[in-house]
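Fill in residues.
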């Protein structure tokens, strides 16, 4: 049985950061993971370039049963603190869009930076350790496939169940429950939406078509690209909206943001009465989508044959297509899981369980979920950092 001050379970973004921050305070830290490699999700993130934070990171861009919870950690370790660390390691980066910061080179640079910081802070990193039991007597005790360890502080940083083929598990939730912490049932977020019936019949042949759009759902709106897939819809606008979507609720899709679709269609009818409706729609929308929508909603050979009210009703559809998703593509395709350890059981300043001194939960394991665009990594850095300061 080896003794440490702090044991961190999970060497992903949040666990590495908690270990670094505790190690820098002189704590003897053990960082355990069942995977053979640290930071696997970091490595594949952002298409291999890691969207490591967002310049516009504000608490309002996170979902949680307690919308105020993330405020404290995000203020104590900000996106600017992480950017300064990236600059210290001379990692070149750029803003892609909407404040999203990516490495110019590779996500490997971020993992290498974190491993270097962990080594400098004296963190003992043990990979390939299957955790068989977690208990507490005087201290926390963690049994693994390679022996047992004890510590006065335990940080749960094993993430959520999104993308199980990468080794993701709901282990943190199970351990939290065992210590009496409530868990908000996890659900897939930042995930493609699936459709059925006539909607899917229309969408499936359009697989691969993408366009600028506004997706509205659950009282929020996201202006980004929508992508048709063979199962329904994806693309950043849909992924963002999916985090707010609840089964049975509609999704409203604006395919012509900021355009007066009715005026455009009426003007086209007057200017070119002999034009085919699909040709006119193709001036506003991708060709394949225009052809599919014209076949379904503008069944005429020439614009002149369509009454204005038919044009107006297509315009209404283009500006607010009301769709009823059948579901999501599930944890297998979700970028993150929403839900997790209930924030009501945690201190927002330190991430420590109020009723179990020495027990901390950080990162995706907790019921805080960011928007697409670097927000989830910033939550991992911020929550990990404040836990490491207190563990
Ligand atoms: P994370 O999942 O990273 O780490 C958990 C660690 O615990 C893993 O190392 C795992 O092996 C280990 N573990 C799990 N179960 C265990 C067990 N039972 N025993 C021992 N160890 C266990 N976010 C963002 O901000 N920008 C981006 O560009 C992207 N891109 C992106 C792409 C893809 C494809 C995905 C799936 C996700 C993203 N994300 C993202 C989201 C981001 O990856 C995610 O929010 C963070 O990795 C969460 O960090 P955590 O450390 O909490 O969990």
């Amino acid at each position: 049985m080896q003794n440490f001050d702090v044991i961190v379970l999970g060497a992903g973004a949040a666990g590495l950061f908690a270990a670094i921050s505790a190690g820098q305070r002189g704590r003897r830290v053990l960082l355990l993971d069942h995977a053979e490699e640290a930071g696997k999700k970091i490595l594949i993130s952002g298409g291999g370039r890691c969207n490591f934070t967002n310049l516009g990171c504000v608490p309002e861009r996170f979902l949680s049963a307690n919308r105020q919870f993330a405020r404290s950690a995000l203020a104590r370790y900000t996106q600017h603190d992480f950017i300064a660390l990236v600059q210290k390691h001379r990692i070149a980066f750029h803003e892609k869009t909407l404040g999203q910061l990516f490495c110019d080179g590779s996500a490997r640079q971020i993992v290498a930076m974190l491993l270097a910081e962990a080594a400098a802070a004296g963190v003992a990193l043990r990979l390939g350790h299957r955790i068989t039991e977690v208990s507490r007597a005087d201290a926390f005790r963690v049994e693994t496939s390679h022996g047992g360890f004890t510590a006065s502080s335990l940080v749960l940083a094993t993430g959520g169940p999104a993308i199980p083929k990468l080794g993701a598990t709901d282990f943190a939730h199970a351990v939290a429950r065992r210590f009496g912490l409530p868990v908000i049932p996890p659900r897939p977020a930042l995930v493609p939406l699936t459709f059925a019936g006539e909607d899917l019949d229309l969408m499936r042949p359009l697989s691969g078509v993408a366009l600028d759009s506004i997706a509205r759902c659950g009282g929020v709106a996201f202006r980004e690209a929508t992508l048709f897939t063979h199962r329904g819809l994806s693309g950043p606008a849909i992924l963002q909206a999916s985090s707010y979507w609840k089964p049975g609720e509609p999704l409203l899709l604006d395919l012509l943001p900021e355009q007066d679709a009715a005026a455009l269609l009426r003007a086209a009818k007057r200017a070119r009465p002999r034009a085919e409706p699909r040709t006119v729609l193709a001036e506003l929308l991708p060709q394949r989508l225009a052809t599919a929508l014209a076949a379904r909603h503008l069944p005429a050979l020439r614009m002149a044959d369509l009454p204005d009210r038919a044009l107006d009703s297509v315009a209404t559809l283009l500006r607010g297509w009301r769709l009823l998703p059948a579901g999501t593509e599930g944890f297998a395709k979700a970028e993150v899981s929403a839900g997790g350890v209930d924030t009501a059981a945690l201190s927002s300043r330190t991430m420590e369980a109020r009723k179990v001194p020495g027990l901390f939960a950080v990162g995706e394991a907790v019921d805080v979920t960011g928007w697409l665009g670097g927000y989830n990594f910033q939550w991992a850095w911020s929550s990990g950092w404040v836990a490491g300061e207190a563990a």
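Residues 43 and 108 are 6 Å apart (CA to CA).
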